[in-house]
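Try this one yourself first.
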C-alpha cells in the first residue's frame, strides 16, 4: 500500500478514454520544436538539415500557429490529429503559451503537445539571473547580519529586465536556485514565535475564545530592534484560529513597550494571545544560507546562496502563468516540466476532453493545474511539488441540474505544496458535480490534503499522509456547511500519520458544519485524530472502515442544536421564504428524485444529526467513540468490531489486510482492496517517487 502499485486495469481504462482506436501513430501529422530550431522553418523535421534551411520550430507558439494555418487551409486536421514533439532543453517563455477555441482538436483528431520521450523539456516562466557580485555598499553591509556579510551577493534585476517584483503579501517574485525555492529572509528561520499578549482589550470573543479586533500585540525579546530601518517589514501569522492565516505589513514597532502594530485591513477573526507568527522581507534577517531579499525600489536582489552561485542556475519568477487554455477541446499537454511562474502554471476554462499527462509542475507561486468549467478534463500521472498554493483544482458541472462535469485527477504525486498560501490550498480539490480523484499520493502540507464541495464526487484509492502539520481543526479531506451537497463517495482511501500542529489534533475526513449525505466506505486510517468526523450532518454512512490507533476513530456532534444553529436557522428561513436551501430547489426535481431524504428535511428535526449509519467498522488501538451524548440517540450503530484483535496480516508493517480467520467477517465486514490504493505504474509518467517520507 505504501509503494507504487501496478494496476493495469485502471491504466488501460485511462488510455482508452483518450486514445481513439483509429488514431494510429502513422496517421498523426508531426511537427517539431527544438532549442536549435527557427520559427521561419517548416517544423516538419526534428533536427536542422545540413545547410540549415529547414528544421524544427523554435517555439510552441509557432507550432500552434502552424496548426491554425493547417486548419485554415484544409478545413480540418489530418486524420489522427497533430502531435507537436518538443525536443530536450529549456524554453524560457516571454508570455504564457495561450490556446483558445481555434486551437482545439476534435474527436478522433486530437492535438498533442508533448515532450520528446525520455528527455527533460522545461517550460520556464522566469528569468535566469547572472552577474552576482559581493556586497560592497557600507550602508548595506551595516544592515546585514555580521555572519552573513561575506556570503551575501547582490545583482541588479532591473538591468536584467525585471522591474515588477509584486507584493510580499503573496503572488510576487520568488527566487529559485538549483530547482529549489529559496526562503525570503525571515525570523525565526524556522517555526514561529508567539503573541505574548494583545494590546487593545476590546472584549472581542468568538465561541468563547478571547482576543482583539485590532492588530497590535506584544512581543517577547529585542529582535525587532533590528527591523527599525527596514523599509518594508512584514509578519505572517495564524492570528486567532489555528486554521486561518494572513500576511501583514508592519506599521510601527514600539521597542520600549515591545509592541508591533500591523497595517489594516486587520484579520477578519482578530488577534489572540498565544497565537503564532514570524517576520519576513527583512534585509537584516538574511542570516542563513538560502535566504534572499529584494529592494523593490532599487531593484537589487540580495542572496546568500547555499552553494557556490556558479554551481547551478538562479531563476526569478516573472510570468503569471505558463499555459492557458480558454474554451479549448481535445488538446493534450504531455511530459513537460513547468516551473517558475508567479501564479497557477496551467489553467483551463471551458472546453472538453483536455488532459495534462505525465508532467512535472513545480516552483509555482500558486496552483499547479486549475480547471474551471467544461467537461471531461483530466490530470493524469503528474508530479507536483513546491507549489506556492495547492496542487490540482477541478471545478465543473451544474448544481442546479446536477449535470456532472466528469473531470478527474488520477495517479498524481503531490507533495510539499502550499509554500506561500498556507491554508485551504489542498493537493486536490473537487468542486461542482460529478468529478473524481483516484489513485493519488498526497503528503507533506501545512493544511488540507484534499477538499471537495458539491454533489456526486468520487474520492477513491488515494493515500494521504503528513498533512495538516501547521494547523489544527483542519481536515486531511475537508468539506463543509451545506445540506444540499449530497451524494459524495469517499472509499478505499488510506489516511495515516495526521495529528495536527504540535500534535494537538486535526481531522481525517472532516464533514464540517452540517455537511450531509457523504459515504465513508472501506477506508483505512492509521494514527489519525478524529479520523471520521460528522459535524452535525445528516444521512451519512461510515461503513466497513478500519481504524488503527486513532484518537478517536469516530466523532459525531449535534452542533446545529447548539453553537452552530445560526447556519441552520438561515437555511430554514430561506426555505420558508424562497423555497430553496443555499439557492437550491431542494424539494423539486432533480434533487427530490436524486436525494429523496432531502425533500422533507424541514419536517424531520432539521437541526438534528439524523440518519447516520455506523456499520461494520473495525477499531483497534486508540479510542473508538467520540460521539457526543446528545447526538448518540440519532445514530444507528450496527455490527462494529471494537477493541477486539481483528487479525491483521502484518500490523507492525502497516499491512491491514485481514487474515481469513478475522472475527470481522462474521459481522459482515468485506475485505478492503488495499493493494489497489495509491499510485500505480504508468509509462506516461515523467518521473516516479521512490519513497513515502513521513514528516
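Now uncover the answer:
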Amino acid at each position: 500500500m505504501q509503494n507504487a502499485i501496478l494496476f493495469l486495469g485502471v491504466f488501460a481504462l485511462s488510455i482508452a478514454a483518450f486514445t481513439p482506436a483509429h488514431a494510429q501513430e502513422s496517421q498523426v501529422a508531426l511537427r517539431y520544436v527544438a532549442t536549435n530550431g527557427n520559427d521561419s522553418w517548416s517544423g516538419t523535421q526534428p533536427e536542422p538539415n545540413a545547410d540549415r534551411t529547414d528544421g524544427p520550430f523554435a517555439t510552441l507558439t509557432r507550432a500552434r500557429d502552424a496548426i491554425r494555418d493547417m486548419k485554415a487551409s484544409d478545413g480540418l486536421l489530418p486524420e489522427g490529429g497533430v502531435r507537436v514533439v518538443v525536443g530536450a532543453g529549456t524554453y524560457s517563455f516571454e508570455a504564457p503559451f495561450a490556446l483558445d477555441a481555434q486551437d482545439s482538436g476534435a474527436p478522433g483528431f486530437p492535438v498533442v503537445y508533448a515532450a520528446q520521450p525520455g528527455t527533460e523539456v522545461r517550460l520556464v516562466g522566469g528569468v535566469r539571473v547572472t552577474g552576482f557580485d559581493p556586497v560592497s555598499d557600507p550602508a548595506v553591509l551595516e544592515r546585514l547580519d555580521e555572519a552573513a556579510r561575506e556570503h551575501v551577493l547582490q545583482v541588479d534585476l532591473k538591468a536584467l529586465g525585471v522591474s515588477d517584483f509584486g507584493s510580499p503579501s503573496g503572488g510576487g517574485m520568488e527566487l529559485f536556485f538549483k530547482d529549489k525555492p529559496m526562503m525570503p529572509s525571515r525570523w525565526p528561520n524556522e517555526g514561529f514565535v508567539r503573541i505574548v499578549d494583545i494590546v487593545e482589550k476590546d472584549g472581542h470573543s468568538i465561541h468563547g475564545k478571547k482576543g482583539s479586533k485590532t492588530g497590535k500585540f506584544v512581543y517577547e525579546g529585542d529582535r525587532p530592534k533590528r527591523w527599525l530601518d527596514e523599509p518594508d517589514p512584514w509578519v505572517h501569522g495564524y492570528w486567532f484560529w489555528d486554521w486561518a492565516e494572513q500576511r501583514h505589513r508592519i506599521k510601527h514597532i514600539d521597542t520600549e513597550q515591545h509592541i508591533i502594530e500591523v497595517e489594516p485591513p486587520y484579520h477578519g477573526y482578530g488577534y489572540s494571545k498565544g497565537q503564532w507568527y514570524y517576520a519576513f522581507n527583512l534585509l537584516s534577517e538574511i542570516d542563513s544560507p538560502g535566504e534572499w531579499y529584494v529592494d523593490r525600489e532599487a531593484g537589487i536582489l540580495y542572496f546568500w546562496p547555499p552553494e557556490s552561485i556558479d554551481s547551478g542556475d538562479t531563476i526569478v519568477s516573472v510570468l503569471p502563468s505558463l499555459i492557458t487554455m480558454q474554451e479549448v477541446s481535445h488538446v493534450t499537454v504531455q511530459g513537460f516540466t513547468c516551473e517558475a511562474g508567479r501564479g497557477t502554471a496551467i489553467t483551463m476554462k471551458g472546453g472538453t476532453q483536455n488532459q495534462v499527462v505525465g508532467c512535472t509542475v513545480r516552483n509555482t507561486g500558486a496552483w499547479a493545474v486549475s480547471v474551471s468549467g467544461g467537461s471531461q478534463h483530466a490530470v493524469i500521472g503528474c508530479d507536483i511539488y513546491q507549489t506556492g498554493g495547492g496542487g490540482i483544482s477541478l471545478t465543473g458541472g451544474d448544481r442546479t441540474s446536477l449535470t456532472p462535469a466528469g473531470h478527474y485527477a488520477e495517479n498524481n504525486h503531490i507533495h510539499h505544496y502550499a509554500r506561500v498560501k498556507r491554508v485551504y490550498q489542498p493537493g486536490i480539490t473537487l468542486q461542482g458535480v460529478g468529478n473524481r480523484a483516484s489513485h493519488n499520493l498526497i503528503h507533506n502540507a501545512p493544511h488540507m490534503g484534499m477538499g471537495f464541495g458539491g454533489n456526486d464526487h468520487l474520492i477513491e484509492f488515494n493515500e494521504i499522509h503528513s498533512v495538516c502539520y501547521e494547523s489544527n481543526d483542519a481536515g486531511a479531506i475537508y468539506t463543509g456547511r451545506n445540506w444540499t451537497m449530497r451524494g459524495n463517495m469517499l472509499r478505499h482511501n488510506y489516511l495515516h500519520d495526521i495529528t495536527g500542529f504540535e500534535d494537538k489534533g486535526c481531522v481525517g475526513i472532516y464533514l464540517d458544519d452540517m455537511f450531509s449525505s457523504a459515504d465513508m466506505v472501506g477506508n483505512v486510517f492509521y494514527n489519525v485524530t478524529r479520523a471520521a468526523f460528522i459535524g452535525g450532518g445528516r444521512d451519512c454512512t461510515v461503513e466497513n472502515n478500519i481504524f488503527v490507533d486513532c484518537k478517536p476513530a469516530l466523532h459525531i456532534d449535534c452542533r446545529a442544536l447548539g453553537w452552530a444553529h445560526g447556519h441552520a436557522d438561515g437555511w430554514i428561513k430561506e426555505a420558508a421564504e424562497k423555497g430553496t436551501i443555499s439557492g437550491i430547489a431542494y424539494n423539486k426535481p432533480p434533487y427530490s428524485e436524486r436525494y429523496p431524504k432531502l425533500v422533507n428535511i424541514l419536517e424531520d428535526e432539521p437541526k438534528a444529526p439524523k440518519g447516520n449509519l455506523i456499520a461494520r467498522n473495525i477499531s483497534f488501538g486508540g479510542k473508538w467513540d467520540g460521539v457526543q451524548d446528545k447526538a448518540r440517540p440519532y445514530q444507528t450503530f450496527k455490527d462494529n468490531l471494537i477493541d477486539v484483535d481483528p487479525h491483521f496480516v502484518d500490523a507492525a508493517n502497516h499491512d491491514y489486510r485481514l487474515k481469513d480467520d478475522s472475527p470481522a467477517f462474521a459481522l459482515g465486514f468485506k475485505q478492503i482492496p488495499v493493494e489497489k490504493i495509491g499510485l500505480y505504474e504508468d509509462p506516461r509518467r515523467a518521473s516516479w517517487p521512490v519513497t513515502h517520507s513521513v514528516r
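Discussion: The radius of gyration is 27 Å. Residues 126-185+285-315 form one domain.
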